[in-house]
Amino acid sequence: MKRSLVSLVTALACLATLSWATTGPFVQVVSPSSSLANTCSAGPSTSTVLANVDLPPGASYQYEVAFLIIPDPTMDMNDMDMMMMMMSGNAMLDPYYALLYQSPAINGPAVSAGASLSIGAPAQWYTTVPAVADHTTIMAKVTTFVGANASGPIAASSALSWDCTTGQVLATSNAGNADGATPPLGPGLIRVIEYYNGAADHYLLTSISSEIAALDAGQIAGWVRTGNDFNAFGDAIAGASAVCRLYLPPIYGDSHFFSASPAECAYVQAAMPAAALESANAFYVHTPDTATGVCPAGTVAVYRLWNHRADLDHRYTTSAPIKAAMIAQGYVAEGYGPDQVMMCSPA
Predict the structure, then answer these.
(1) Omega of the bond prior to 104 within 30 degrees of 0, cis?
(2) pLDDT at residue 239 greater than cutoff 80
(3) What is the DSSP string of 110-144?
(4) pTM above the 0.85 mark?
(5) What residue segments make up the domains of the chain, in order of their start?
């Protein structure tokens, strides 16, 4: 059968129908932090996702892993429900999803931006069901509760789904506290948005409104928002440096490179003649002291991480925990001073 992304979106949207606490614990899954490929059957490797977590003492969270079932239009829905419950040993997690695994409750406190959150190993998931078909959609949902031991009102829920064969992320969904409003920008500021392509294991930055719209609409396939961004200036201002944006074609890695250093922009173009200068001023930021790496007052450090692979790619983040997590995965920090700061984002 063909996988139905309409069913997937419908199922994820049902998260919003739950009863939420108006204040309290927060969780937001932003991207995988380990490969989710080859998770269609039991295996020893533990899967992890990158998440922002704020879990005060007395609160708790729990995660569930489920697989998408495409309904057979010729089958009676009562029979379909019974089949899903027989396969999972539980009632459905969401419409068309059958539960594979539910973790014990994990109690707070825990506060971290870009925490690497375990969602268990496939060996834990596939007990009642030995395996699912290739390219089945798997969903991991993390839920936070106001009380300990998964008790009390639900405060937030965040889900990520992927193709169990390729590991490509298919959708994300947030509800409750995880679906908070984006704070307004100050005068002259723009937001630089981060996207992730699970199939390529590449990251992308953009502040271009038309490109953001195309990525969010799926017109440029494979990319999903990570939930991370940082501020920049849209136009030149005193003291800020222009950031060049270079496209590195497939012979270099099929990725984009950003730098606030004119000398570095020129060096990369000379070293990689096939690289295309897409913009000499994609946006504007302040720069750190080249000796100490310290950013000017009122700005936030932006780190650049190189994947250290033949398919050259970089990740840019203001999060020290994300920086540490990427280094643990083999990435190399590039920048100035002992903290290796590359740019300074206006707060």
Answers:
(1) no
(2) yes
(3) EEEEEEEEE---HHHH-SSS-B--TT-EEEEEEEE
(4) no
(5) 5-179, 189-346
